[in-house]
Specification:
Layout: H1 12-23, E1 26-29, E2 38-43, H2 51-54, H3 62-70, H4 73-84, H5 87-103, H6 115-134, H7 140-159, H8 169-185, H9 195-209, H10 221-240, H11 249-262, H12 282-292, H13 295-300, H14 308-314, H15 316-324, E3 334-337, E4 342-346, E5 355-359, E6 375-379, E7 382-385, H16 399-404, E8 412-414, E9 421-423, E10 427-430, E11 433-442, E12 445-454, E13 459-468, E14 472-492, E15 499-502, E16 505-508, E17 513-516, E18 521-531, E19 534-559, E20 563-567, E21 570-571, E22 582-588, E23 594-600, E24 611-613, E25 616-618, E26 622-628, E27 631-638
Antiparallel strand pairs: 1-2, 3-4, 4-5, 5-6, 6-7, 8-14, 9-10, 11-12, 12-13, 13-14, 14-19, 15-16, 16-17, 17-19, 18-19, 20-22, 21-24, 22-23, 23-26, 24-25, 26-27
Helix pairs in contact: 1-4, 3-6, 4-5, 4-6, 5-7, 6-7, 6-8, 8-9, 8-10, 10-11, 11-12, 12-15, 14-15
Length: 639
């Protein structure tokens, strides 16, 4: 039975190009959600069917070997076979599966048999086997050899299951793959040996891994996506076969997909949060919208067509579902995920939107970074302040711990150091304790507040971010620590931007934005990684404020046509509050509107406690007075 695929469909040329390279034994990994990308092709001869061949790492990185053994190039080969009817693709798919099976006649733990990669490989083999059997290409004897190997690999996963997999993407990828494989290949899935075990473990994993707010606990966009991919696949296959669905799977699919959509930047990519790349999320959201029947996800996909490999994996029914879905603009502009400490607010769903990302939550897994109080900003659809990415997982690379550490994030520090400190590629020497964040959205104003507690010496860092009309940001950093110190903040710019000194701060590249830092700032050059295995240069603005015991630092990011004036906060009796207790920042917009932001840096417990902000009385930790064509308004953002 043939499913017709158009060779001229969007994305098919890339599928066929990759398949042709596999015919030549040239392997590279550049799909959007390849966990460890490598653009450089390496030639590996797998025809001898030996373990040595399958454990090759020609670039010296074992992650390359892991990618080779996930075998998702079988998808390219089988789709190329369906699209072109050229038998060379199907022959290569069969030979590669038989080569792997022959080289692993006895399954033992090793570079080519990690249980994560085994879970991925099972899904790929099952899809390939279904296609090859349905098209009558593979012989019954060859199919039986592969089926027996798949069964053995499932048993291998069971026998090597570790307790830590309950909360790891490793676990859910393995168990959800097993369920989907049984659904594809078995005539009686529920009576397969390891069905119930995988079913029970999947239920426990989903409850442990997906927070009530819909985010994945590992706090890495990349690995939230990986869990989502296998959750969607399992739900689709099991639903089509009218098989039981693990408790929590449907809610997990929706939660993970919807919070992922809220993380989409105006160009359709995601910030490289935790161990992640800047990846185009729209094709995945298109798939999720079709699978879940969610019109808002289709809106965020912005007309993206389904990837040919997704239609191959899900069948032509997924395309019918997608085409029948009428997109609807998402009702919300804000993600406040308190469980994970991920906060995202956008000015609109347009391509020129401004987006703010604020982080203040737990570490997550080994894929998490030292990014407490991190701030990312996109303005007019462009990345401005960014996360620096991950680059590599190699233990011997100094860039691995550097990019996980505080210095690679837009955070405040004391002397550039933090209690949060990576140890090698996957562990931490210590980690700061985050306090509960405080967030408010009202009247064109967004407010985020977070704090972390450190030790040796005992310290508290507090960051408050006020976003005004979605286009100007006031960042107030405070530190408490006995003795004399330097309060620093780092602002990492997108690699496309290079700064120029201007009055009061720094002009950010060819944008109209200025980062007003006052005195005591510098620019340094560092390396960042928007894609795994790729490094770029970036400008980093570092601010400094000396303090004794307690320090405050205010930074403003605003367009050049917005005036920025900093001054004192007045008491109601016209006496100035000391600058160590409070300050005001006045923003003047081209249309004549002014917004004056008053921030107190602690409790005012002596003297008159009624304050004046632009002539308006109030008492609060953070307040904004707006004067515009509609009159005068006071908004309290923090009591």
């Amino acid at each position: 039975m043939w499913i017709r695929f158009d060779t001229d469909a969007p994305g098919m040329d890339e599928v066929i190009r990759r398949a042709n390279h596999v015919l030549e034994s040239r392997f590279y990994f550049t799909k959007i959600w390849d966990m460890e990308r490598c653009e450089t092709p390496y030639k590996v001869d797998l025809s001898k069917c030996t373990l040595e061949e399958w454990e090759a790492a020609p670039n010296g990185d074992p992650e390359w070997c892991f990618m080779l053994n996930r075998m998702d190039y079988l998808d390219d080969l089988c789709l190329a076979w369906l699209a072109t009817r050229k038998e060379c693709y199907a022959e290569r798919a069969v030979s590669l599966m038989l080569s792997w099976v022959s080289a692993h006649s006895e399954l033992c733990p090793g570079l080519s048999t990690r249980t994560l990669d085994t879970g991925v490989r099972l899904s790929v083999m099952a899809r390939a086997l279904s296609v090859l059997e349905n098209t009558g290409f593979i012989s019954p004897q060859q199919a039986q050899v592969i089926r027996e190997s798949i069964s053995e690999q499932i048993g291998f996963i069971h026998d090597h299951y570790l307790p830590k997999y309950e909360t790891s993407n490793w676990g859910s990828i393995q168990t959800l793959s097993i369920l989907a494989v049984y659904g594809r290949l078995s005539v009686d899935p529920e009576n397969e040996r390891w069905w119930q075990w995988a079913f029970d473990r999947a239920e426990a994993q989903l409850a442990a891994q997906v927070y009530p707010d819909g985010t994945d606990w590992e706090l890495s966009t990349m690995y939230q996506v990986e869990v989502l991919l296998y959750a969607l696949q399992a739900q689709w296959v099991l639903s089509k076969k009218d098989l039981p669905i693990p408790k929590g799977l449907s809610n997990a699919c929706r939660g993970l997909a919807q919070t992922l959509a809220m993380q989409a930047m105006p160009d359709g990519t995601t910030e490289a949060l935790g161990d992640s790349d800047r990846s185009n999320v729209r094709p995945l959201l298109a798939l999720a919208s079709a699978s879940l029947g969610d019109p808002e996800l289709k809106w965020v996909a912005k007309g993206s067509s389904l990837e040919p490999l997704d239609v191959y994996s899900y069948g032509i029914e997924i395309e019918d579902s997608y085409n029948a879905l009428v997109p609807q603009r998402p009702r919300s502009l804000t993600l406040d995920a308190y469980d994970s400490g991920l906060f995202v607010t956008r000015s609109s769903w347009n391509s020129d939107a401004n987006v703010t990302v604020f982080l203040d939550g737990p570490l997550g897994s080994g894929h998490g970074h030292c990014d407490e109080l991190h701030l990312s900003v996109w303005s007019n659809g462009r990345p401005i302040l960014v996360d620096s990415g991950r680059y590599t997982y190699r233990e011997d690379s100094p860039d691995r711990p550097r990019l996980k550490g505080v210095s690679a994030h837009n955070v405040p520090t004391i002397e550039g150091h933090s209690t949060s400190e990576p140890l090698g590629s996957w562990e931490y020497k210590d980690f700061s304790y985050p306090l509960k964040p405080y967030v408010r959205h009202t009247a064109g104003l967004d407010y985020w507040e977070g704090a972390v507690v450190g030790h040796d010496p005992t310290s508290v860092l507090l960051r408050r971010v006020i976003c005004v009309r979605g286009c100007a940001w006031i960042i107030v950093d405070q530190a408490w620590c006995d003795g004399s110190h330097d309060l620093q903040a780092r602002f990492h710019l997108d690699p496309s931007l290079h700064v120029q000194a201007t009055e009061g701060g720094w002009l950010l590249g060819d944008t109209s934005l200025v980062l007003y830092t006052g005195e005591g700032s510098e620019v340094v050059q560092e390396g960042c990684s928007m894609l795994y295995n790729q490094m770029s240069d970036q400008d980093v603005i570092v601010t400094h404020t000396a303090f004794e015991g307690r320090g405050v630092q205010t930074t403003t990011l605003a367009p050049q046509d917005v005036t920025v004036d900093e001054g004192p906060l007045m008491r109601a009796d016209d006496a100035e509050l000391d600058a160590s207790l409070a300050r005001c920042v006045r923003l003047g917009f081209p249309n004549g509107t002014t917004r004056t932001i008053a921030v107190t840096f602690g409790e005012v417990f002596r003297g008159v406690k009624a304050f004046l902000c632009d002539g308006v009385s109030f008492h609060a930790g953070v307040a904004v007075v707006t004067r515009d064509a509609e009159g005068l308004r006071l908004d309290v953002l923090r009591g």
